[in-house]
Structure prediction request, 163 residues.
Amino acid sequence: MKLSQRPTEPPDPSTVPVDRVLLATEGRPIPPSAIRFAARWHAPVRVFSVARVHGISFAFPNPWLMPSRKEWQEQRDIVEEAIKALEKRGVEATGHVVGTRKATRAILREAERDGSNVIVMAADPPQNRFAADLMWSQEPYRVRRRAGVPVYLVIPDQRPEGT
Prediction:
């Protein structure tokens, strides 16, 4: 995957023309603040969630490493709740869940496939970059570094980074 040459800080959201929004999560619940932020453009929103595949064995996926039925249902519920909240705000929304070990790659592919102009994600506060590369919870920052479109990270109960 080619790294983007653009700065990691996204532009002011009021200056970005948006036709489609990708509201993505690497598995965490989507907070209301991220839903409000995604709805600000009144553009169609694609809600996308990743059910984490925990690994492979001998280069083949194994059933015990795949998401359980409960994990799949949790992700479906997250997507469904976000869609309902967006529709209450008068925003057209669709969504789905995929299982993968590489959440960043899946999110970026979905943004490209869907033609999204921006990506909105909930994020924990940033950590030390070395330690963050080992943490699943820092996935939004990896998405931001590799994305070719603006990525707005919403830290729950705070304003999104870059605004």
Remarks:
- Residues 1-6 have pLDDT under 50 and may be disordered.
- The beta strands are 21-25, 45-52, 93-100, 118-122, 151-154.
- The helical segments are 32-39, 69-88, 103-114, 129-132, 139-146.
- The chain has five helices and five strands.
